[in-house]
Amino acid sequence: MDLNVLLHGNFGKLGDAVDDWDSMTKKLETLERDARDNLKAKATRAHWKGANATVTREFVEKTADEFTDAHTQAKSITNILRDVAEELSDYRKHLEEAIERGRKKNLTVVDTGCGTFRVQMNIHPDRAAKGTKVPEHDELDVELLRDEVQKILQKATESDSSASRVLKSLVDSVKSGFADSDYADRDAAVHAERKAEKDKKDAKEAADLYARLDGLDDKEMKRLADLTGKGKNSPVFSSELMKNLNYRGRDGQEALLLLAGGLEGGGRDGHMSAAERQLRDALSANLATATRPDSPLGPSGGEPSDWATKLLHAAREGNGLPAQHPGALDGGSTGLSTLTKLMGAGDAVYDASLLSYTGDGIRDYETHTKDPYPLIGDNWKGTQEDPMAGLMKAYSRAPGAAEDYFDPSKSDNLDYFLKERDWPGGDVENKMPQDLVDTSARHYFGDALEAASTGHAPGIGTPKIPAEHNSVQAAIFQHTVEAYGAGSIGDPQGGMPAGLRGAMGGMMSDYIGDIHQILGQERNGATDLSGLTLESKDLVPVMRAMAEDGHAFGQVHDAETTYVAQSIEKYDGNTFVDDKDPDARKLEAFVGQSNMALGQMDAVRADVIYQMGEDKKSINNWNKMMQYHMIGAPVTGIPLAGDTIQRLVDVGTAEYVNNLNSEVDKDTRQNLAQHFSVGHKQVDAMLEEAVKKKLPESEWGLMDKDPGMFESNLQIAGLGRYNDGLTQGSGQMGKVTD
Q: Do residues 476 and 405 make contact, with C-beta atoms less than 8 angstroms apart?
């Protein structure tokens, strides 16, 4: 920047630009808020079908997101312009002050053009008027003034040029639409620019190390792990790494797949070391980051980039090199499995565009290939090597993407996986050891379904009881229940794949508010929370099939116990003992529903034990698995709202566990009401605990008043409803085994 420009230039236009952009930002903020709170929110909640549920909703959501990005970009531009305007004003002030200090020493600064200047005497001593005393200076004063002015001009130049550079970079960072980079000022933008340069350099170093992976020493392996780990969230690092990969004579997408296969297979000695596992997980994260929307290799308009489409092509087709070639890449099920195992590794969250594109690609491959899985199709190995396994694992970490992929109003993907797909190894899945079941493709499909239907990753417990769900999540859950309802009747072991039982328990516990209504009421319409239109005859067979897994059944029972406890806690103490209380009828109805629901759950548990026959070891193991969940929130993670509700849960579960039947014979199975009362006792114990917490001891005797609210309307009527639940539940599981 020239001295005269900084000293005398008109910065007014820059100030006007700041004002204009500030005004634009405020207008875009209003538009963004309207788009988010009105346009997008209403589209998300709308119960649309057909084209509106697919094309219209997607268009509305993308449009709303564009307003968000537009506001973000405008705010960043405003912040950068304001920052540079303030900086240049400060540098002008510093320059003026420096020149004034020089003038006091008879020195002046002269612009010589092209960014240069010189320091000279202001008045030559020989020309000074008679009697005038000229300030003195020496060579050091000249040098100090020159250096000070030079530094000011350099800083001003850097401020001006870097602002220009980052503004251009911000606008050019996306192919279309608006950038979502949020910068508070010019320094933040410059810092991001410098980090990007550093990330590019590190990515090239990492690519060079990967090229020599087979011969790296421990120090180099550590360096590679550090580089890839630090860069896993950087779109610049990750995309540069993907573009520069070279391994065994192959580059780009082929190199990535060869590396993934080598690391998954244990690298050099066939056993995956901790370092190799760390590299594989980081490579997965790098791929996820490189293909997300804010990356150079990311999607455009929701469609995967050319780089991503070529990756799937390489996985599906291989490269045709002979098997003995070190760079040979198999296609088909092997190549696809290599890709999805990488995607499923670690904890990386992939963008929906790559997930759905990969899923569609695998589905197209297996439906248009005569024998898609020739070596793994009929045995347990198929459940482990199925390329859908890794993909579903990745989907389970991206609930929003899973919800979109399985949305029955958008595609038939859900029906395909639930009803049509010929799962490799599916014929032997229910006979496998539990550790293989837990690492099977169908298990990971269950995790993806749980994420899609609940809105959160599986295995983290129910975030809220009762939880609410949007229409798409509810539709996914309902479709899943309906798919296994009729098929499970009379065949609990074969009616549901073993790998899905745990996930079904997670889904049912998340929908426990709806399930309570379905089991406890004769509803004439959809449930209040999630709008389900299921009936108990749809639900009980699925619950019975799920209950082959004691953990899954225990999770649902625990959720129901918590739901009952939270609902009981809402009532005033007088309501439990006075049938004239305004809320007495509501409490009576709720207690009846709770008994009815728990009666059907006990019918399920009785059937499990009955079908185990005299195998005491299996019965005890199942009871232990179920009881693991019968100890309240500290272990299960189900949220509670205070010590009182926790106490109700503890009392209820203790009563349940202490009265569990350890065996069920034929007579018991056919006359459950004469032998079972544990669920009813559980509710009674919770009601008694509530009275003792809410009323003084002098009024506890009202519980035994007969006829009375507690004795007649809650306990006796509740027992009748419980027995109804036992009978109804037993009748909905199929023919009683002789």
A: no
The Cα-based distances of 576 to 557, 566, 587, 697 in angstroms read 24, 15, 8, 14
Q: What stretches of 35-109 show up as alpha helix (H) in DSSP?
A: 41-45, 51, 57-103
Which residue matches tokens 């006796």?
A: 716
pLDDT of residue 121: 79
Give per-residue pLDDT as tens, 484-512.
886 777 777 778 999 999 999 999 999 99
Instruction: Return the ∠ at Cα 308 (arms to 305 and 312), rounded to 5°.
Output: 140
User: Measured over all CA atoms, what is the biggest interatomic distance in the chain, rounded to whole angstroms?
Assistant: 132
Give, in degrees to the nearest 5, the angle at Cα 483 between 478 and 489.
Answer: 115
b/e 617-632 (16+ beta carbons within 10 angstroms → b): eebeebbeebbebbbb
Give the rounded distance of the alpha carbon of 327 from its chain centre. 35
Q: Cβ(20)–Cβ(84) under 8 Å?
A: no
Higher pLDDT, 63 or 453: 453
The enclosing H or E element of 593 equals helix 584-611
DSSP H helical ranges for 456-583: 471-488, 498-510, 512-520, 536-546, 550-569
CA distance 429 to 375: 16
* Residue (of 88, 61, 65, 72) closest to 24 by Cα position: 72
